[in-house]
Amino acid sequence: MGPLMLDVQGFELDAEDIEVLQHPTVGGVILFTRNYHDRSQLTALVKAMRQAANKPLLIGVDHEGGRVQRFRDGFTRIPAMGKLNQDPEKLELAKQCGWMMAAELLAVDIDLSFAPVLDLDRGSNVIGDRSFNAESETVIELASAFIVGMHEAGMKATGKHFPGHGSVVADSHLESPVDHRSWEEIENQDLVPFKTLIEQAKVDAVMPAHVIYQMVDSKPAGFSPFWLQKILRQKLGFKGVIFSDDLTMEGAAVAGNYPERALAALNAGCDMLLACNNRKGAVAILDGIPQGIESKALQLLHHSNGNWERLTSTQRWKAGAARIQAFSDRFL
After folding, report:
1. Cys-Cys crosslink for 161: which of 3, 70, 165, 185, Cβ 3.0 to 4.6 Å?
2. What residues pair up with 179 in beta bridges, in sequence order?
3. Residue 217 annotated among the catalytic residues of the structure
4. What is the pTM (predicted TM-score) of this model?
């Protein structure tokens, strides 16, 4: 499996998509709303991508719930994680949401949702109610329940955005955010959910933030050997997969052109690189980094046969859909 995860253009593959998927450096595809018309079309697209690649292919999507849910009509609408606190049985609901989100994606042969968000809700424009809570203890409780649900469905969990994006107001899609807090503040607040859930062996993958933690290191976390190797790998003992955040985001621009960003992320310790919504940038990365790099993200592939009708006939799906809808009707 190669180390680059990119996107495709629309509802169906075009000739350029097929050529790119066959490149040995490509190991995954991330899907977006523009790739979704209905479930049958999506299922056909996923099948076509796997056939075109003719190799193991990790297929993922941002499908957290709330405003970040790429497939809506035809899928259960998952609430934003920050809304779950309104329910008196929030831990049970979080587990059901994690299971439902994962089970429905697996049923259309999608391996991974980049979830859950482990950031604290402390003023970030881009995080907000994507976070479970402002307090680390509540984030740990709810995220843990959500991950248990994901794991029961058969999907691996990706914690993001390490070491914490929630206290940075700026949006790294649009600019290069800087966090001015001390190491002690970050360690005692934002890092706590990552540390605890890694210790509990609940986090299978991590996505770092395109944020510069100025008092700690001069590089954004996703390009920083300090954050990814010294802290994440050595101090926290994380042994899973490290994804870069999207290398075409403005927050990644400080690392240079597209091939330079890719090499910097690989050298810092990323196992899989995301390059989204910029085909020229993705092709530049394919042309600019060495071939033959193997990604450990192979371990995130699911190994079940997707079947939507079988899923929706189960009592667990029926009960979960009713529970989530009842919450939405009451609180949203």
Report:
1. 165
2. 213
3. no
4. 0.96
